[in-house]
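4.2 Preliminary Data

To establish feasibility before requesting continued support, the project team ran the inverse folding procedure on a target of 399 residues. The structure was first converted into the token representation described in Section 3, and no sequence information of any kind was made available to the design step. The complete token record follows.
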């Protein structure tokens, strides 16, 4: 069986980087900036070509990536025996040794293979049986921290296998020791900051910051801090071909690009225990010098600048009566119009009713998911002067 990726050879190979729906373009730009070749976006990801050093660099430096995976092989299987036989034909010993640990994760969209757990089991059997027959022993399964995580994807009768180089998903930055009730994944927060068009010479206010994720991710962008800076481990470090000297060189050169520029980021929350979590997290992330954490209601904020960017991730109303959530969003709209002239305001929410209550017409509407919740990320231009934000019901927010 022809392997797409040969572990033992140096040079370029295909890499796939996954992300959240709606962040593909941001990820594509990041990959360009890091020197990726043959970049092609797909739904929830981007495919790119690079070498081993590039693989290390993107795991360390990408802000909007969830996982970095390597396509290893693709074949057809029309029944479970064919799946097992083909898996056994793969020269797994090129990647894995019988003393390594493995984990298989299956996803299937097929009338032939209907159970993903069963598929994972069959693939595992094929791998371990090959090792047992060739060497007399087999790799063990480790469902928590395996050295090799293999993804099996079956569409109809097409089986594709990928090797995970990241280990823990890349949103697990490692700076967030304290979380609140509805924390946002770091990768989504990083994506929101980029999508908002915020640039570091502008003030950024997260008026309802929770654990501080959006503000911290903005500080990482602004100061060139690689998001992997706080992690001790990536999946590829457990591989036999791990080139520690190469990784150290890449790590050092990324760390040397960290800047310490004055940036004005405000993380504000009404709830004192929640804000304390944001304070702890900004300290963990070593950005407490650029993020100011303030404990007050969003409605009491008086901007100190004439313009800037506000990002709000208000409650979506899952635990609130509809009338209350609509009232909250109406007040947000009124506050933005009254006190934030000259700012661009962005609001992410899953509640169409609440969004309509803002009473402002969005100039951009981006479709995203926050976990399983389908959301809109809306931009409101709060003009200072003649081109005023409208409260005319005909032009109000359409979801
Ligand atoms: C959905 S959570 C934000 C989650 C945050 N993005 C994170 O990653 O942790 C909403 C936050 O809004 C805060 N909040 C609700 N009403 C507020 C108000 N009037 N002023 C400021 N914060 C408020 C809540 O305390 C809560 O922390």
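Position-by-position output of the design step:
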């Amino acid at each position: 069986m022809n392997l797409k990726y040969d572990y033992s050879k140096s040079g370029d190979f295909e890499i796939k980087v996954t992300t959240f729906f709606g962040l593909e373009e941001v990820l594509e730009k990041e990959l360009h900036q890091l020197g990726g070749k043959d970049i092609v976006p797909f739904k929830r990801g981007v495919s790119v070509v690079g070498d081993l050093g590039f693989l290390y660099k993107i795991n360390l430096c990408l802000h909007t990536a969830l996982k970095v995976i390597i396509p290893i092989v693709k074949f057809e299987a029309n029944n479970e025996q064919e799946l097992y036989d083909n898996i056994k034909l793969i020269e797994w010993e090129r990647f894995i040794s019988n003393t390594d640990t493995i984990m298989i994760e299956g996803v299937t969209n097929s009338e032939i293979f209907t159970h993903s757990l069963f598929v994972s089991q069959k693939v595992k059997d094929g791998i371990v049986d090959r090792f047992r027959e060739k060497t007399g022993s087999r790799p063990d399964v480790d469902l928590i921290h395996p050295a090799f995580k293999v993804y099996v994807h079956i569409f109809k009768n097409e089986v594709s296998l990928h090797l995970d180089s990241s280990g823990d998903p890349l949103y697990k930055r490692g700076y967030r020791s304290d979380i609140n009730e509805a924390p946002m994944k770091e990768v989504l927060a990083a994506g929101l900051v980029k999508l908002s068009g915020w640039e570091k010479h502008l003030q950024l206010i997260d008026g309802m910051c929770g654990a501080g994720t959006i503000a911290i991710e903005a500080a990482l962008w602004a100061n060139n801090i690689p998001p992997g800076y706080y992690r001790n481990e990536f999946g590829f470090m457990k591989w036999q071909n791990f080139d520690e000297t190469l990784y150290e060189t890449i790590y050092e050169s990324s760390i040397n690009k960290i800047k310490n520029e004055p940036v004005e980021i405000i993380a504000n929350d009404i709830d004192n225990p929640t804000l304390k979590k944001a304070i702890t997290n900004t300290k963990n992330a070593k950005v407490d010098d650029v993020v100011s954490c303030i404990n007050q209601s969003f409605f009491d904020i008086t901007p100190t600048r004439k313009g800037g960017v506000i990002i709000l991730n208000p409650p979506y109303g899952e635990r609130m009566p509809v009338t209350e959530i609509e009232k909250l969003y109406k007040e947000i709209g009124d506050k933005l119009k009254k006190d934030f002239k000259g700012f661009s305001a962005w609001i992410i929410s899953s509640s169409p009713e609440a969004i309509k209550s803002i009473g402002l017409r969005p100039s951009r509407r981006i479709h995203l998911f926050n976990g399983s919740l389908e959301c809109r990320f809306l931009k409101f231009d709060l003009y200072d002067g003649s081109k005023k934000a409208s409260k005319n019901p005909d032009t109000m927010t359409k979801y």
